[in-house]
Amino acid sequence: MLNYFIRRLLYMGIVLFFVSLLSFYIINLPPGSWIQNYASELEASGDIVDQSELEFLLQRYGLDRPLHEQYLRWIIPLVTEGDFGQSFEWGQPVWPLIEERLFLTMTVSLASILFVYVVSVPIALYSAINQYSIGDYFFSFIGLIGLATPNFLIALVFMIIMLRVFGVTPGGLFSPEYLRAPWSLAKFWDMLTHLPVPVIVIGTAGTAGLIRILRAQLLDEFQKQYVITARAKGLRERFLIVKYPLRMAFNPIASNIGSLLPQIVSGSAIVSIVLGLPTTGPLLFRALIAQDTFAAASMLLMLSVLTVVGVFISDLLLMWLDPRIRYERSN
Amino acid sequence: MAEKLLQVENLKTHLPLEEGLLKAVDGISFTMGRGETLGLVGESGCGKSLAVSAIMRLNPSFAEIQGNVTYYPLAGAPIELTALDAYGPEIRAIRGGEIAMIFQEPMTSFSPLHTIGNQITEAIRIHRRDDKQAAAEIAIDLLRRVGMSNPAQRMNEYPHQLSGGMRQRAMIAMALSCEPSLLIADEPTTALDVTVQAQVLQLMRDLQHEFGMSILYITHDLGVIARMVQTVAVMYLGRIVEITDVDSLFYTAKHPYTEALIQSVPKLGKKSRARLESIRGAVPVPINRPPGCGFFPRCAAAIEGLCDRHDPPLIQIEDQHAVACFVYPQVVDALGDSPREGAHHAA
């Protein structure tokens, strides 16, 4: 078992190394650089471009060096000192810039995943037990609409409803008075009250998808011999369904958490822009457009870390759930 | 005849499918006495499994069930099983407690995610003693009696850690855990290899003596029938075509189908040159079946104009020997005073 853990950690390191390499390379693929963008922006607004200042910036950020050297200048301090480098765009270190946003991204993502499970499991159970009932069709219909509608559109619809019906602008994660305030219980509570709208918007597609998967999975499991065996023992139907088929149906779902996480993180970027959420999504988007290499690469790397850890956790969960997998892995 | 335990009267299981009505079980009747062993034999698809799942009310919910299945408990009034709610408390008290079942596939009959012990004690705690410790002791004792080594350790093992034979032993232990009066064994040895098959059959015989229960044995294997049962009901296309004791079946089979079935079993000591007989044709699928004997298209003794027009009733033509075939004049006579009777039984 210990062997397995060590091996997994090693794999995670290798994966993250390649992710960092690849993302750094891809960010630098588009022609031009942040300096050139900066210069042309200054020109466009009629300012005088100071060549020596550009030179200075070029030197300072090492943008005149070859790509692999730039990569090393970013990755080495990151690994040795935890220094994420400077953001060109913001003129300040990357880490303080993304620290809170990463935390908020995780909060929104985990809340969304929780929402997905809490809503879809009971609905899927109902739909599977009452297959082809009116309720089943109703949920299928709603679910398919949820699956087919882009998230940002749902976000817009939500904003309109909130504005027209409740007279509030549902933007951001905080009320204005807490926006710059330090963390406190009151601020945390304020965040919780702002969470439902983004969570529902981000979670809808996942919920709809999971209902479909879980319903099909359950219907499949209901036919299995071990369910009939359990019934032949005289178990109550309700108890039996929860103990056997539902438990079995959770296997693919547990293994799905790992892939749900990156889906939600990357899928929420557009929603975050529309809803004005202070998550990494909008910042990453801007950093990519501005070719703010270190900021973008650092954020991508951190999101990859979260994803890799998420996959690892879902694997552990799977081992906990399924003795067969536990047996396989420990040998 | 022993005290009555189970009476099945004109039981029908019809499956409404898109292609038409599939009469999987089409009016079968038999009676079992306490402590008796009845074998239900027939080819795959003849409806034998669906017939017994209807007794336990474990049939698919879209199946239409008709007829009566009456269970006679040791104490109290007879219970009409077909009238019970398939998910209600009455049938649940009978399932596992009074009538237990062993299934064909030991590989899939257990949940792979729960320990053997968990799955066995579950039944004990419902029907006997809702006490974890006591239930575990009963289960360990049973695992020992079905011949499992290290029973206490097996309790904490998962099905994938056991071989097929061991799993089937665990299955038997689970079925016997609540000391049922009737054990329904649906092809319990079909999925096992021959040596393990013999061990499991021997085990079931021993346990039957020990527990004094009745066994309803479903199989397509005549060898198993010869070893295990007293009375045999031969099923073909959803109907019982012959009921008799096991000796008469093998020595004086009356129905052409039964004869053909016995002919098609290879025998030791028979001349090796002699061809093994097989029944021509295949079992038709009983969807929207026409009237007449189901075996008519494959039967060597078929009587045109009779067998393809009328359903032969199951008629007792000798002591303890009933057959549904127009080759026997008694059966033709019985047709005269229709509506035909169903419930004739030999035992």
Structure overview:
The complex is a heterodimer of chains A (331) and B (347). Chain A is an all-alpha fold and 331 residues long. Chain A contains 14 helices and 2 strands, in the order H-H-H-H-E-E-H-H-H-H-H-H-H-H-H-H. Chain A has helices at residues 2-27, 34-44, 51-61, 67-81, 94-129, 134-148, 151-166, 185-194, 196-222, 225-232, 237-275, 280-289, 293-321, 323-330; strands spanning 86-87, 92-93. The model of chain A has no long low-confidence stretch (mean pLDDT 86). Chain B is of the alpha/beta class and 347 residues long. Chain B has 2 domains: 1-98 and 180-284, Rossmann fold; 112-175, no CATH class. Chain B is built from 11 helices and 12 strands. In chain B, the strands form 2 sheets. An 8-stranded mixed sheet of chain B has the order 6-7-8-3-9-10-12-11, with helices on both faces. In chain B, helix 7 (194-211) links the parallel strand 7 and strand 8 (214-219). The longest helix of chain B has 18 residues, at 194-211. Chain B is globular, with a radius of gyration of 21 Å. The interface between A and B is medium-sized, with 22 and 30 residues.
Task: Give a quick summary of the entry.
The complex is a heterodimer of chains A (331) and B (347). Chain A is mainly α.
Number of domains of chain A: 2
Radius of gyration computed on alpha carbons of chain B: 21 Å
Q: Give the termini distance of chain B in whole angstroms.
A: 7 Å
- Tell me about the largest β-sheet of chain A: 2 strands, antiparallel
**Biggest sheet of chain A, strands in spatial order?**
1-2
- Give the name of the CATH architecture of the largest domain in chain A: Orthogonal Bundle
Considering DSSP H and I runs of 4 or more, what fraction of the residues of chain A is helical? over 70%
CATH top level class name of the largest domain in chain A:
Mainly Alpha
Order of helices and strands of chain A: HHHHEEHHHHHHHHHH
Give the largest interface: A-B, 22 and 30 residues
Order of helices and strands of chain B: EEEHEEHEHHHHEHEHEEHHEEH
Q: Count of helices of chain B?
A: 11
- Which CATH top level class of the largest domain in chain B fits? Alpha Beta
Number of strands of chain B: 12
